[in-house]
Amino acid sequence: MFVEELIRAGYLKSKHIIEAFKKIKREDFVLPDDRNKAYINAPLSIGCGQTISQPLTVAFMLELLNPQKGNKILDAGSGSGWTTALLAEIVGEEGKVYALEIIKELKEFGEKNVAKYNFVKKKRAKFFCEDAHNGLPEFAPFDRILVSAAATSIPDKLLQQLRVGGKMVIPIGEQYHTQDIVLLEKKEMDKFKIQSFSGFVFVPLVKK
């Protein structure tokens, strides 16, 4: 099973994240014709020029983000809804996940997929068709912010909406070039600890 492979390779480490990966099935978030490919370690097209990220990358980003039970999380560029569902499973009944997807068809696709786990009905996950660069100021501050598509620079509005003590994980780099996954920890209102991890390629974070 691909979860065990990710554990053996050292990408999945935390018990609560491993449990979420086992419960939330990737096959529920791919296009029907790709269900037989759901467990290969590769990105898959979900239409509209976007992809569901490869499992290795999602595992790596969630381990950096380190989401916790009860967190309020912004999932920016939610796409297929897979990361939204993983996060909703992790935060539990006391947590909330706000999913942002600018492409209407993908917002509906992701919301429908996440609804398979009753997270939408239970209001643990809520979807918005908005530009992820702007965040959701009306629900800020967030304990965690996950961005699953590459921006050319870190959006200021997302930095502002991150709670002091919170973490954001975001890919940064030019389109069609190798990009960095960046971990930001907000130490004070305008002070961040930043770590970068190179060697990744993401689809672009779409803007209006």
Question: What topology emerges from the helices and strands here?
Answer:
Layout lengths: L1 H7 L6 H9 L20 E4 L2 E3 L2 H11 L6 E5 L5 H10 L4 E5 L3 H12 L9 E4 L13 E6 L8 H5 L1 E11 L6 E10 L2 E10 L8
Parallel strand pairs: 3-4, 3-6, 4-5, 6-7
Antiparallel strand pairs: 1-2, 7-8, 8-9
Describe the structure.
The chain is an alpha/beta fold. The chain has a single domain, classed as Vaccinia Virus protein VP39 (Rossmann fold, 3-Layer(aba) Sandwich), CATH 3.40.50.150. The chain is built from six helices and nine strands. The strands form two sheets. A seven-stranded mixed beta sheet has the order 5-4-3-6-7-8-9. Helix 2 (15-23) packs across helix 4 (82-91). The mean pLDDT is 93.
The biggest beta sheet is recorded as: 7 strands, mixed
- The number of domains is 1
Strand content: 25-35%
**Main β-sheet, spatial strand arrangement:** 5-4-3-6-7-8-9
Query: Helices and strands: which structural class?
Result: alpha/beta
Unreliable spans: none
Total number of strands: 9
CATH topology: Rossmann fold
Average predicted local confidence, pLDDT: 93
Determine the N-to-C terminus distance: 39 Å
Shape: globular
CATH class: Alpha Beta
Please state the CA-atom Rg, rounded to the nearest Å.
Answer: 15 Å
Secondary-structure element order, as H and E? HHEEHEHEHEEHEEE
